[in-house]
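Before relying on records like the one below, remember that each one covers exactly one chain. Contacts with other chains, cofactors or solvent are not represented anywhere in the record.
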Amino acid sequence: MGFLDNIKKLLSGGMNTDNTENNSVYSDAAPLSDDKKSISDELLKSAELAPKPYFMVESEYGPKRFFFELSRDFIEFNSHSEADPSYQYEPWSDEEFTGYNDDLPVMFICPDDDIYDASESFEKGEPVDELNITECELSCFLYSTSFEKYGKLFYAYAFASDTARETEMFCVQYDPRLAGTALEKKLKAALDHAVQSYREENIEGYTD
């Protein structure tokens, strides 16, 4: 299944929160499987590599311009969807652009129904039933959360209202078999850094 198919499913909402086989998996959960034979050695061993230097991502959305720092472990790709900007984890590559590979972790900004509903409840001071969240003290973000959806794990931050990507999520997506590994920690740290460095500015003279 390609990235576009995954995102179409993602946008349709519907996280598992009951006690079914695909129950939600959070950041401190034990690995879903000890069998990592189908995860490439190159990918697993990349956790031992120090992150490459950071570069500044700059993009525009509506009347705002936004910036964040990202390790060059991640390479831009075209998701052909609302997931934009989107970057794929390929620390062994020096390319500036790549094609999507479903076996590799990706980082992107994207709308999501459950994040939207949870953020609305959060900002109204109501209980958040959709997700297990951790409130964060960042001007552009409300909380962080981890969940499993459609065969992938997501570690995500929810954008606050009045930001460029309000009520959307900034996330890293990866194989559930990476849960509890050093690589998972490295991927989460990369997103943490991107979020902590994130800032916005109004575009002067912007018109619809």
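Helices lie at 3-12, 41-45, 113-123, 182-196.
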